[in-house]
């Protein structure tokens, strides 16, 4: 996959592969909340969880995949790209707890959004955001996404392993269309 982006501030992005399991284990070691998009999105990840997740998110398979945000050999976060309908893709992002609020997602999300429009030819990219997640709402606006709709009780809280026993909350859908005004990367 032709994905090797320089993001600025010493950061770069590249597709994550199964061999990156140790990086994912290290990155999620301090996570206590639902964090990543996978069969089991709660951290921290074991080596087995990381290998399973990365094998399911293989860029070579042509479906969903993860993009790592790195500084040197340290994984600071990840962006998931999940095709849904033809011409539409969900983008999700996660930053390791000790690196949050430092502008990392503000550099990565606009760059990867532009890359997906340009290189993958995806005309519509969308975010699913908990209405209570103020930092993500602000990031969506700064990255050039526009509010589209509210989906009642759509997103799982992951407070229980059993989906039937879990809590669900509303999600806000924000979209970015190809040809839309460029995103800003101001922190």
UniProtKB/TrEMBL annotation:
What InterPro entries has UniProt attached to this entry? Acyl_CoA_acyltransferase, GNAT_dom, Ribosomal_N-acetyltransferase
A GO CC term? Answer: cytoplasm
* Residues in N-acetyltransferase domain copies: 22-164
Query: Which Pfam family is one of this chain's hits?
Result: Acetyltransf_3
Task: Mention one GO molecular function.
Answer: protein N-terminal-serine acetyltransferase activity
What is this protein called in UniProt?
A: GNAT family N-acetyltransferase
Q: Which organism is it from?
A: Streptomyces montanisoli
